[in-house]
Design brief:
Chain A: Pfam families: p450. Chain A: This is Cytochrome P450. Chain A: Belongs to the cytochrome P450 family. Chain A: It comes from Nocardiopsis ansamitocini. The complex is a heterodimer of chains A (397) and B (76). In chain A, 49% of the residues lie in helices and 8% in strands. Chain A is an alpha+beta fold and 397 residues long. In chain A, strand 6 and strand 7 form a beta hairpin. The longest helix of chain A has 32 residues. The model of chain A has no long low-confidence stretch (mean pLDDT 95). With 76 residues, chain B is of the alpha+beta class. Chain B has one domain: 2-Layer Sandwich (Alpha-Beta Plaits). The model of chain B has no long low-confidence stretch (mean pLDDT 91). Classes of the chains: A alpha+beta (397), B alpha+beta (76). At the A-B interface, helix 4 of A face helix 1 and helix 2 of B.
Chain lengths: 397, 76
């Protein structure tokens, strides 16, 4: 028998998951692959199976399991040690998730609307004061996403640049375990100091509430609290930073869809969900081990095996979405899994939606002549990143 | 004939907020992030929203029981 093909595979088109997913999906429910560690894992590519497997109680996210199919160098070691709640199982996961989820309710998220709006206007004005061409990733998306998540958590403005430098290392799949470890040490030192500062002088923010609530009541250890704040900061920033420029390029390349949004801004929420489905930047983020046999339609993931339900493959399954490779903001289907599925579904999804909508609306309204200054085909792809994105998007206006 | 009936199992709720987002007349989200069922017996005009909320709930906390009109594709 031949060696299973290597995974992950790079994208063919920057907008859509790798073309090879279509062939895998057509061939059968499970595809055996070899991951960078040399271990084997099953890929799931069908929407029904991806949702069923992610909702199954036997789908373990625990990175301490030696069979956990980490894709990045050093990722498993770091996750097993720090235990961010995205890599935990119930009941530990439930405890942490419940501490955090009140910070991300629809009401709380919507209350952030004016702050996000102001941030986007300020950052766009700053970008437009520069001489084009400028990089949309560095000069707009990264500045918006770090400002918003730091505001929510309570990271002071003077620490923003330091935080931005840390995330450059932690967000790259090419970083070594040592590099990630050093960057995380810096991040944890920052969060540790903030927990002290806010215990002494509480503010109206997430870190203050966790420090004075669960930490003081002894419901969470200090080291776990630092891990959970760290993953929230990182995940909340990296996703938006990658999505905003990629989505902006997708809109520029689909002027008919952008014209509909200019005519009727009420269509933005639907457009954002379609961008999330179409681009699926977190395609390979859900990594699991089966703790018991998991039954799918026409196949079984055997107990003990590692598997990766591919969110992008599910979101481009023609059985779930008509003409899946077409970007259509009027698409009726709503059940994409861009934020995952099951108990781990993205805790910050409502913030993500709102941030994406405002950042794209402010950008396309405020710079109506926005255009790429280099050929679309030459945009550098972040194929080594855990969250897909573009390294750089040089624009003029 | 059993009238359609909604259930929100707060023990299973993971606080994603999908129900309150997609069916705000039927569900709310409390300050702890958990689902709150507002209308256990959805009127017929709210059934497509109820069905969407049940389908999108990632943790299986939202369920729609009873005799339902023939299911249509999950859209709004």
């Amino acid at each position: 028998m031949s060696t299973p093909a290597d995974f992950p595979v790079p994208r063919t088109c920057p907008f859509t998951p790798p073309d090879s997913y279509d062939a895998m999906r057509a061939a059968g429910p499970l595809t055996r692959v070899t991951i960078p560690s040399g271990k084997r894992a099953w890929l799931l590519t069908r929407h029904t199976d991806v949702r069923a497997a992610l909702a199954d109680p036997a789908a373990s996210s625990d990175a301490r399991n030696p069979d956990f199919p980490a894709l990045g160098h050093g990722e498993q070691q770091v996750a097993a040690e720090l235990r961010p709640f995205i890599r935990m199982d119930p009941p530990d996961h439930t405890l942490v998730r419940r501490m955090l989820v009140g910070e991300f309710t629809l009401k709380r998220t919507r209350a952030l609307g004016p702050v996000i709006e102001q941030t986007c206007h300020e950052q766009l004005a700053r970008m437009l004061s520069l001489t084009p061409p400028v990089d949309l990733v560095t000069e707009y998306a990264n500045r918006v996403s770090t400002t918003v998540i730091c505001h929510l958590l309570g990271v002071p403005t003077e620490d923003l640049e330091f935080f931005r430098s840390i995330t450059t290392v932690t967000g790259a799949r090419s970083s070594t375990a040592e590099q990630v470890g050093a960057a995380l040490n810096d991040l944890f030192a920052l969060i540790n100091r903030l927990v002290d500062d806010k215990t002494a002088n509480p503010c109206d923010d997430l870190i203050s509430r966790l420090a004075l609530g669960p930490l003081e009541r002894g419901e969470i250890t200090r080291s776990s609290l630092l891990s959970q704040i760290g993953i929230t900061l990182n995940a909340g920033h990296e996703t938006s930073r990658n999505m905003i420029p990629l989505a902006a390029v997708a809109l520029l390349r689909h002027p008919d869809q952008l014209a509909k949004l200019r005519d009727d801004p009420g269509r933005w929420p639907a457009a954002v969900d379609e961008l999330l489905r179409y681009l699926s930047v977190a395609d390979t983020i859900t990594l699991r081990v089966a703790t018991a046999d998991i039954e799918l339609e026409g196949a079984t993931i055997p107990a003990g095996d590692a598997f990766i339900p591919l969110l992008g493959a599910a979101n481009h399954d023609p059985a779930a979405f008509a003409d899946p490779h077409v970007f259509d903001i009027d698409r009726p289907e709503r059940h994409h899994v861009a934020f995952g599925y099951g108990v781990h579904q993205c805790i910050g999804q409502n913030l993500g939606r709102l941030e994406l909508e405002i950042a794209l609306r402010v950008l396309t309204d405020g710079a109506p002549a926005l255009a790429l200054t280099e050929p679309f085909e030459e945009l550098p792809l972040k194929d080594t990143s855990a969250i897909f994105g573009l390294e750089q998007v040089r624009v003029s206006w | 004939m059993n009238a359609p009936r909604l259930r929100a199992d707060r023990a299973r709720c993971t606080g994603a907020g999908q129900c309150a987002r997609t069916a705000p007349t039927l569900f709310d989200q409390d300050d702890d992030g958990l689902a709150v069922l507002l209308i256990p017996n959805p009127p017929v005009e709210a059934l497509s929203q109820a069905r969407l909320a049940a389908d999108l709930c990632p943790s299986g906390a939202i369920a729609l029981h009873g005799d339902l009109p023939r299911a249509r594709p999950i859209t709004e």
